[in-house]
Amino acid sequence: MSTRYAGLIERYRNRLPVDDYTRIISIGEGNTPLIQLQNIPSIIAKDVDIYVKFEGLNPTGSFKDRGMTMAVTKAVENGSQAIICASTGNTSASAAAYAVRAGIKAFVLIPDGKIALGKLAQTLMYDAQIIQINGNFDSGMSLVKEISKHAPVTIVNSINPFRIDGQKTAAFEIIDELGYAPDYHCLPVGNAGNITAYWKGYTEYAQDQGDLKAVVSKRPVMCGYQAAGAAPFISGKMVDNPETIATAIRIGRPQSWDHAWNAQKESAGWFDCFSDEKILEAHKMLSHYEGIFCEPASATSLAGALKDIASGKIAEGSKIVCTLTGNGLKDPDTAINQCKDSHPVTIDATLDAVKKAILDKM
Ligand code: AN7
Questions:
Q1: Which of 191, 199, 244, 327 to mutate to test the pocket of ligand 1 (most atoms within 8 A of CB)?
Q2: Domains of the chain by start residue, with CATH
Q3: Of 340, 307, 339, 304, which Cα lies nearest the Cα of 324?
Q4: Distance from CA of residue 154 to its chain's centroid?
Q5: Which residues contact 281 (CB under 8 A, 6 or more apart)?
Q6: Most Cβ neighbours (<10 Å): which of 68, 96, 135, 361?
Q7: Burial level of 103, CB count in 10 A (0-12/13-18/19+)?
């Protein structure tokens, strides 16, 4: 028997809305590594186990692929010839790739000039119909919701419930790997689809294992972290002009508002927000101390965990999972800017010059 990994729908088929006849649209998504941080806990001098779920290793470099395999599989099953989304970049790249795989069309609405370079490059290469708008994600989202009443296109933003179903499998993978749910789960929050999906996944696994009391103790505390300039869950109201360097989460009107509040309440969790400076600090720490290169928005989860560990809100001895939602290669501009003070040396191509360059740095 082949043990080839065929994607998350195959792996968690009995927990997903597919049957034996469903044509599965997959690019081998899921099964991402859960990496324990080895250096950061000692740098902060705290006895905690921090794991990162590195979703940047999905086929298009973000967690969106988990939801997209499911959403596009169901769109095709239901006879759809075209999908559409509004996006800060990752959803558009993912939608475009899965549409190609399925042989259908993808239309993507993106905020002009406000998506990271790698995401634009991918979406162009996947040959999506790109519609740039003079507006932000939130205006794109409301247009997409409207247009789907007027054109035969299936929305694949996370308001599509199949997206949430696909994304919940990340929680299954974590429990399958650790053997238990972590004490805390930290996530960056934009539209709030992902926090909704993880909570659903943790809840479904816990429900398998017994009565309601047991369920509560078998699920993590959910911690949702936002960028300070785009933090509706902190102010408690929608934000009109969201701004942050973490363009992935430059969202002021989260679509999964009620679901995310529900996850916070049921898990006795919390929301918090961070300046761009703090987000970039965590972004750099992951690369500099752990060899893990994620995109800026993703590092918001670590920024949050570090703050709450330092204050004692997350106690020592805790097991914490931070989701790193996207790959660092998505946003090369911000990465290079982060390192503008480190000057690569340029030398003559001689043995002596190379020797000197090495010995200078030892
Ligand atoms: C790297 O691509 O909304 O809270 O249009 O790309 O589930 O929205 C991206 C969101 C976190 C927030 N990290 O997740 C889009 C889009 C990264 C992201 C989020 C996004 P949600």
A1: 191
A2: 8-61+163-338 (3.40.50.1100), 64-160 (3.40.50.1100)
A3: 304
A4: 22
A5: 303
A6: 68
A7: exposed
* Residue from 60, 64, 98 to probe ligand 1 pocket by mutation (most atoms less than 8 Å from CB): 64
CB 89 near ligand 1, within 6 Å: yes
* 248 pocket-lining for ligand 1 (C-beta < 6 Å): yes
Question: Is residue 103 over pLDDT 60?
Answer: yes
Ligand 1 atom nearest to CA at 86: 5
Residue 2: the pLDDT is 59
pTM for this structure? 0.96
The helix (H) or strand (E) run that includes residue 54 is strand 49-54
| Structure token digits, residue 143 | 């247009």
Average pLDDT, the chain: 96
Q: Which two tokens stand for residue 289?
A: 């101390």
Is residue 297 in contact with ligand 1, taking CB distance under 6 Å? yes
- Using the mean position of ligand 1's atoms as its centre, give its distance from the Cα of residue 361 in Å: 40
Q: Which two tokens stand for residue 281?
A: 């600090």
